[in-house]
């Protein structure tokens, strides 16, 4: 069996199948450069209501891409003075997750594989970029990088991911009822919809 044609059992779930198609930017997606804002105030990744959250701020990019910034804080340490790897993965996950807002789909992370290339000290501003690379059925393939020292600086972390498109019921049926009720009772229609990343 050649490396170019591995058996099904050896195919990576992170590599799109040959009949995957290009991701499509929704015509009503925010313009490149436009801030996406937090989708849910209590989101650990982007919400303002989580004191120790990442407070990640994302902007729409060209095509199906986003950029984001995240500053590593004291609360995000693993080793002394260094960012926790899981926190960095969360920042990549959140950036990748916001791609669905540009495609007008609701999707959740199915698989996420992170490469940690350089340690990231506390106080570092991490420059993130994510782009969708392919779509196959409900699967959205995407990749992301986190750079230090500037938007063109060296890549400290990178990830490949598969997101799976879901219906809003995914959240309503599985989330804790207290938060689901609060989100659904929000009188602000846009906030209500964005809690579940449903485009109004
Ligand atoms: C509101 C948005 C907030 C964004 C925040 C940032 C993103 C997140 O962190 S989301 C939270 C973390 N993720 C989750 O909690 C998801 C938990 N998992 C699940 O709910 C389910 O396993 C779910 C929905 C992913 C898939 O279940 P289900 O809908 O039954 O899918 P299923 O029918 O089995 O599979 C559909 C396709 O996806 C593929 N797939 C499913 N799971 C995976 C996976 N883990 N890895 C790769 N591919 C997968 C299947 O192989 C299948 O492919 P194909 O169509 O080619 O056969």
Automatic annotation (TrEMBL):
Pfam families assigned: 4HBT (PF03061)
InterPro entries referenced in this protein's UniProt entry, alphabetically: HotDog_dom_sf (IPR029069), THEM4/THEM5_acyl-CoA_thioest (IPR052365), Thioestr_dom (IPR006683)
EC id: 3.1.2.2
Transmembrane annotation, as ranges: none
Thioesterase domain boundaries: 81-146
Reaction catalysed by this enzyme: (5Z,8Z,11Z,14Z)-eicosatetraenoyl-CoA + H2O = (5Z,8Z,11Z,14Z)-eicosatetraenoate + CoA + H(+); decanoyl-CoA + H2O = decanoate + CoA + H(+); (9Z)-octadecenoyl-CoA + H2O = (9Z)-octadecenoate + CoA + H(+); octanoyl-CoA + H2O = octanoate + CoA + H(+)
Record key words, sorted: Apoptosis, Cell membrane, Cell projection, Cytoplasm, Fatty acid metabolism, Hydrolase, Lipid metabolism, Membrane, Transit peptide
Gene3D superfamilies to which the protein is assigned, alphabetical: Hotdog Thioesterase (3.10.129.10)
Primary localisation category: membrane
Location(s), subcellular: Cell projection, Ruffle membrane; Cytoplasm; Membrane
Renumbered residue ranges of the record's region Disordered: 1-33
Record membrane topology: Peripheral membrane protein
PANTHER family attached to this UniProt entry: ACYL-COENZYME A THIOESTERASE THEM4
Family affiliation: Belongs to the THEM4/THEM5 thioesterase family.
Name of the protein this chain belongs to: Acyl-coenzyme A thioesterase THEM4
Organism: Streptomyces smyrnaeus
Taxonomic lineage of the native organism: Bacteria, Bacillati, Actinomycetota, Actinomycetes, Kitasatosporales
